[in-house]
Amino acid sequence: MKIAFIGLGNMGAPMAANLAKAGHEVTGFDVAGASAEGVAVAESSVAAVAGAEVVITMLPNGAILRAVADEVIPAMAAGAVLLDCSTVDVESARAVASQAEAAGLGALDAPVSGGIGGAAAGTLTFMVGGSDAAFAVGKPLFDIMGQKAVHCGPSGAGQAAKICNNMILGVTMIATCEAFALADKLGLDRQSMFDVVSTSSGYSWSMNAYCPAPGVGPQSPSDNDYKPGFAAELMLKDLGLSQQAAEAADADTPMGQRALELYRSFVEDENGRGMDFSAMLPRFEKRGRG
Ligand code: NAD
Asked: What is the pLDDT of residue 117?
């Protein structure tokens, strides 16, 4: 398949390289001049999409996605599919899909979970919104870049699933970290805390698979000085998107709102930028109630 890949950053470059490795003809473009293994680099996004059957975007945010969509949609081949894998607001995902469909193109929003490691290993999970026909075009590519693709519904459904999932993740990580900090102050040994909670009703992915306490549980960023992993500022971005969506939909999300406030303070005022999102544990450890 002839594929264009716009946005060859931390995630995009390994994803594009995996498609090329699988035998697809991939042409990429990134404003920063980035490239990826096996990928031909074009001089512009418009040049990259010429003749492509699928155009994949992996960009920082919704505003940039909208700008790139304005550029590439008029240049895309009739019947091609615009497949956005970035994490963006639901409204931008729907707007770009309508714009593509009005131009006779297919459109999918397909944000991912699995991080940079999953992108490199081809084990991402895709949460996909869009038509059945467009999903059928994207499916073989999801199978190369990932291990699972869930077709969640019409346009925007992929982004909706992603931000709801990450709102739960942000909230459970904070709950896990504050509970560890309380356990410390109560004199409870961290290994005992893990052994009990990971097999009791407090268990979660944050505790069991990504334990924020160093030396306890499976290997995680806490064992590597909280180097990301999944950076706190990316969690802040996703929590912002979930609150934006909650406001637009008039949904009451007090825990998501509180998690957003805590990650905002952590990133903006407490040196959390560049740290893994599980570094909330040392943050809580240092604090008292005041
Ligand atoms: P990144 O900043 O490394 O990559 C984004 C790339 O887009 C950059 O190389 C940038 O130069 C390029 N770009 C910006 N504007 C452009 C334009 N107009 N035209 C072409 N290229 C342009 O970010 P990333 O970590 O690769 O993340 C990409 C997306 O994936 C984000 O939406 C992020 O939220 C999401 N995501 C990231 C992770 C992760 O662990 N990094 C996990 C899941 C989802």
From this structure: 86
CA of 58 to the centre of ligand 1 (A): 5
CA of 181 to the centre of ligand 1 (A): 34
Catalytic site includes residue 162: yes
Cα→Cα distances 85→5, 8, 112, 218, 238, Å: 10, 12, 6, 29, 14
Give per-residue pLDDT as tens, 221-276: 999 999 998 999 999 999 999 999 999 999 999 999 999 999 999 999 999 999 99
Q: Which single residue is written with the structure tokens 């996909």?
A: 128
94 CB contacts (<8 Å, ≥6 apart)? Answer: 155, 156
Which residue in the list 148, 162, 185, 227 is annotated as catalytic? 162
Burial 244-259 (b: 16+ CB within 10 A, else e): bbbeeeeeebeebbeb
The SS3 call for residue 249 is: helix
Answer yes or no: are the C-beta atoms of 230 and 277 closer than 8 Å.
yes
Whether ligand 1 lies within 6 angstroms of the CB of 34 is answered as: yes
